[in-house]
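User: Let's play a game. I give you a shape written as tokens, and you guess the letters that built it. Ready? Here's round one.
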């Protein structure tokens, strides 16, 4: 239990240091806000005005919001700042991820031994990306909760639960998981641990139920008939429109994403495989999934976050064996020391990632500073531009009631135009006062605050650590001059 508590504490630390979110998390976060504060008043929901490129399911946000509701309601009754509710819903999502992870850890312990399970928790607590993403309201994080349940059921040979969890993950949250979970299913069918009859007996009703559930629920909230994940799959994969947001080389997941996610633990994956050949059944589906998914040009680390726990099983097997054999010779004592030292390396890289990550949300910081600067003001009418909205602003950050402050995110208004000059305050994203987005306001507005954010890292071998983190202005808070 101590290790589980440690991992939960690390996840909360990541949440409190990086409380804001970015554009890819926007839909789920706004949906959780609207479920909590607007109920069934769909016309007031954020996605009605800002639907995004593709629709997403409301089922995940509804579930998390309902679980978080008692604590969120209690906070509202006590008069707490509305932003506290953002912490609450994100912490609730993190609790769901951790619950599934601990079930996965229990299955690993049953299959590989209790010590391997303990090492799995400890290793995960020292790595950045799993703990960071555990509370982030991404479709991948909602899927991660269910994927961990599916993997735990797979390890425990509970095929019924495995099929049900796989269907939920694929049909509701991320269709590409058919590759990863499909590899696990193929192994079961090939080894005849699962028969085709049993598979179809469970898969057909599960698939129909999940599809009916998402169509009925999401069609109500989106106000049209649709299957959200079907549209996402068609847009991103069939039409390959996701490449509009950038492309990466074919092997990017292998040489960039996985090494960053595992940090120094990556070196122990082949060691674990050497000690325990059963890991082939875990590593082959992982590598097969990443390889096939690499054919999609648009790549992001979060798209393969599900492979981290599986790869860490191999790392945990290596650490457990090296630690158990530490008393057999001086050389093995050295290996045991290096095993523990690699955790320190992980912590160092995680601390660096976390420090840089907190500098990536200038929009959220700008909103907080505006509230602090104008805390005694009423009649504030603030415009939030796209760059600000995409880097930390959410409805949870709009803490003042609508009869005292008005928050506006209307897009496409010409800089310096009549509509923009009606606002008392502007949050404008750019890196220079001389930019065409800010220059039209230099005569009519005062710059009351500048928010800097991460720009780049410069190596500097004359200091420890041997690098400088460079920040530059990203968001400008402007206030209209009084005549």
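Assistant: Ready! My guess for every position:
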């Amino acid at each position: 239990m101590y290790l589980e508590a440690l991992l939960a504490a690390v996840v909360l630390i990541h949440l409190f240091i990086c409380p804001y979110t970015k554009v890819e998390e926007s839909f789920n976060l706004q949906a959780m806000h609207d479920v909590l504060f607007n109920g069934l008043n769909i016309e007031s929901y954020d996605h009605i005005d800002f639907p995004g490129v593709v629709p997403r399911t409301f089922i995940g946000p509804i579930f998390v919001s309902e679980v978080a509701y008692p604590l969120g309601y209690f906070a509202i009754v006590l008069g707490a700042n509305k932003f506290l509710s953002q912490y609450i819903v994100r912490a609730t999502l993190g609790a769901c991820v951790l619950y599934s992870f601990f079930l996965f850890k229990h299955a690993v312990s049953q299959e590989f031994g209790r010590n391997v399970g303990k090492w799995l928790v400890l290793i995960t607590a020292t790595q950045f990306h799993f703990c960071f993403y555990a509370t982030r309201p991404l479709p991948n994080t909602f899927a991660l909760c269910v994927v961990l349940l599916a993997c735990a059921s797979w390890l425990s040979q509970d095929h019924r639960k495995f099929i049900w969890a796989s269907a939920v993950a694929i049909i509701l949250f991320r269709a590409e998981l058919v590759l990863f979970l499909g590899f696990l299913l193929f192994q079961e069918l090939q080894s005849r641990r699962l028969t085709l009859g049993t598979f179809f007996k469970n898969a057909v009703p599960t698939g129909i139920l999940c599809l009916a559930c998402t169509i009925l629920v999401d069609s109500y909230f989106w106000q049209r008939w649709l299957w959200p994940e079907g549209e996402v799959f068609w847009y991103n994969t069939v039409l390959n429109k996701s490449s509009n947001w950038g492309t990466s080389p074919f092997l990017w997941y292998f040489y960039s994403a996985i090494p960053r996610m595992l940090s120094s633990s990556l070196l122990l994956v082949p060691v674990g495989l050497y000690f325990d050949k059963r890991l082939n059944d875990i590593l082959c589906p992982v590598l097969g999934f990443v390889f096939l998914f690499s054919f999609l040009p648009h790549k992001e680390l979060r798209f393969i976050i599900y492979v981290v726990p599986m790869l860490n099983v191999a790392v945990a097997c290596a650490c457990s064996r090296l630690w158990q054999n530490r008393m057999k010779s001086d050389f093995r004592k050295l290996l045991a020391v290096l095993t523990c030292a690699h955790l320190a390396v992980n912590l160092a890289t995680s601390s660096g990632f976390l420090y840089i990550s907190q500098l990536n949300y200038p929009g959220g910081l700008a909103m907080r500073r505006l509230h602090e600067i104008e805390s005694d003001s009423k009649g504030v009418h603030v415009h939030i531009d796209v760059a600000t909205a995409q880097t930390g602003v959410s409805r949870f950050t709009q803490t003042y009631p609508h009869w005292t402050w008005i928050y506006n995110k209307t897009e496409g208004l010409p800089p310096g135009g009549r509509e923009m000059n009606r606002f008392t305050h502007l949050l404008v994203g750019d890196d220079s006062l001389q930019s065409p987005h800010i220059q039209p306001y230099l005569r009519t507005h005062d710059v009351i605050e500048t928010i800097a954010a991460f720009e780049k890292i410069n190596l500097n071998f004359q200091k420890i650590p041997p690098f400088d983190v460079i920040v530059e202005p990203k968001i400008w808070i402007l206030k209209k001059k009084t005549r």
